[in-house]
Amino acid sequence: MSVKIRPYRKGGYEVDIMIRLANGKTYRERRKSPYSSRSASLRWGRERERHLLVHGTTPAGQTTAGTDEKEVPTIAEFADRYMEGYAKANGHKPSTIDGKEQHLRSHLLPAFGNKRLDAITSEDVQRFKAKLSELSNKTINNILATLNTMLKCAVEWGEIERLPVQIKRLRVHNPSMDFYDFEEYEHLLTAARAIGPKQLGFVLLAGDAGMRAGEIRGLHWTSVDLSRRLITVERSEYRGEFTTPKHDKIRTVPMTKRLAAVLGELKQAKQALVFTGGGDVPITQQVGRTWMGHALDRAELRQHGPHTLRHTFCSHLAMRGIAARVIQQLAGHSELTTTQRYMHLSPGASEAAIAMLETPPPRRDAPARGDMLETASHRPPHTP
């Protein structure tokens, strides 16, 4: 038995599978891999090899005595295998797994549950998009991504020979990021301070350190260095489970003096978590939203979730002229393009460029600076 991979003449890779059947005969199968990378093609070939060994093979146009043609499972029948063998087996974060399960339960199974994996058509997908039109394009694309990875898994695991449809995603326009301006943010801090140190600490960790809500809930005192005023963002919490931050980007963020002061006030020797719902149990998502909501009500500001304070953090840095790369590092963005969504707020470069239009234009007959220097160097020395 063997699985060999070689470059395909028209691009991609050819998978060459050779096995020995139960009747002692050798069976060879060569086909183009549905994947573009060598490693994924090899995994697909090995899955195909196992499929042939378990289920046997039927030459085109014939049937094998005593062997029934394997029936392709439906989306509903394949869903649990996909979640266990793909999402959970690949160590996806709990929030990602919950999102995929929500996509299946609320959208994909009602629309495609009774359809075989190989029976989904382009028209089916387009009709499905139309039914989801009330959702944002980003949300629709996330749901389509779950369907697409399911179908790719079915190919890799030998349930279907090729992808039945090429799924086209919708165009997503970057939305404007709402944030609290400098005066509003100070009002919010005043309101949170009046409620209590926990509420103030929560707001400052989001607005002065740019931490996500899950990162705040997962913050341990071992990650807080009050003497050097540094926070290491290395954990995120979701429904009681601790993982690494989004995109696995662990980062260190300096603390403002006011953040260090309130964390020093909250510090307790026997408490592992900065914010706890009792013992070593983290606060829930709802507790964080409630703290934020009470502070916003007291400050008489528009209601938003804690993530708006992260937008406020990035926006205030940009408005103070901080470079995009620095903001990216502090916020833990995986792509600079995410950070650049805030950079239109930076007044420095744009205003300086426009101001240059109001300066006198260069004279055409004026010597260049280099020519002036050269003339000066060849001028004879002055004699009294």
From TrEMBL:
SUPFAM superfamilies noted in UniProt: DNA breaking-rejoining enzymes
Gene3D superfamilies documented for this protein: 1.10.150.130, Intergrase catalytic core (1.10.443.10)
Region feature Disordered, mapped onto this chain: 360-384
The UniProt record lists the keyword DNA-binding: yes
Residue ranges constituting the Tyr recombinase domain according to the UniProt record: 175-355
Domain Core-binding (CB), chain residue ranges per copy: 73-155
GO terms for MF: DNA binding
Protein's UniProt keywords contain DNA-binding: yes
Keyword list, A-Z: DNA integration, DNA recombination, DNA-binding
GO process terms (BP): DNA integration; DNA recombination
Pfam families on file: Phage_int_SAM_3, Phage_integrase
PROSITE patterns per the UniProt record, alphabetical: CB (PS51900), TYR_RECOMBINASE (PS51898)
InterPro entries: CB, DNA_brk_join_enz, Integrase-like_cat_sf, Integrase_catalytic, Integrase_recombinase_N, Integrase_SAM-like_N, Tyrosine_recombinase_XerCD
Family in the record: Belongs to the 'phage' integrase family.
Name of the featured protein: Tyrosine recombinase XerC
Annotated organism of origin: Enhygromyxa salina
Taxonomic path: Bacteria, Pseudomonadati, Myxococcota, Polyangia, Nannocystales
